[in-house]
Amino acid sequence: MSKQHKLARVALGCALVAGALSSATAAEQKICVYDLVGTSGDVYNLAKDYAVAMQKSGASITLKAYTDERVATEDFRTGQCDGVIATGLRTRQFNALAGSIDSLGSTTIIRNGNVDMGASYEVVRKVIETFTSPKAGKLMVEGNYEVGGIVPMGAAFPIVNDRKINSVEALAGKRIAAFDHDKAQAAMIQRIGAQPVSADVTNFGTKFNNGSVDMIAAPALAYKPLELYKGIGNKGAMAEFPVMILTYQVILNKTKFPDGFGEKSREYWLGQFDRAMKLVKSAETAIPKSAWNNLSPDANVKYTLMLRESRIALAEQGFYNKQGLKIIKRVRCSVNPADSECSNQAELDWK
Length: 351
What we know:
By secondary structure, this protein is an alpha/beta fold. The protein is about 40% helix and about 20% strand. Helix 2 links the parallel strand 1 (about 30-35) and strand 2.
């Protein structure tokens, strides 16, 4: 082979390698985004800014909006999307530890019988900070699935069609919406002697508004889009008690993104915490004062105990990730060390 031919082959090889690298760099990642109101929603807007910001980390992200969360997560699971942004209740199937944030009462803080919403949201912030830490990197990966970020979407408040339903005892026999994909909800509802009614995110608001159920739990962000004031009417109310604090979570197929992308992605979303909280607080403030119902200190304490007992029992049954709940309890007790639960080992002695 002549010297010229050898040089030509080397040049061709270099060109093919360069072309392959260029193609890999240019490859787009598609992320499915669940937003209750589609492309005009707050979550989709957050995702658009994320896509732009992560270009510097080697990603070229395109977004696809979904108003049906089940379809969004299923499209991701079957490989039609490289990532998904959806509620922690849905994404728990991809990372059970991260999904433990969205568990019954795990981030709720009660002081002297009164709900402390600021402290409750501080628990969420600290848990997200913990999960974003490089030390927690391995915990954020299950197989090819990696948690790419977590942001708050607000407390899920009990919403009832009769404000007389204002205690644990008053829930007995009542019809309460339970999401099909979160079996823990139905188990907890049955535990308190109420009747779970099968629902999902596309119809639970309608079931409440038309009287098919007596109670749902929903964040303030859903109040206006789902017209929940119709179900509340003149007799109902929204109780200022966080049954749980919901999150949106970003789940990535890590094989489709550059090395180290997941950690950078988590750091980006941690930086969006305050922005997300502004949306949450704005929605909570926008609900008319007449729609709220403050529970008595005694009722708050009973609700907290009920949720704690339910959470522990559900974890023992495999519905919740025990390691995640251990981490959250440590955070909860760092925020509110005076709580009586912090003097016992419940949730901390799991292996």
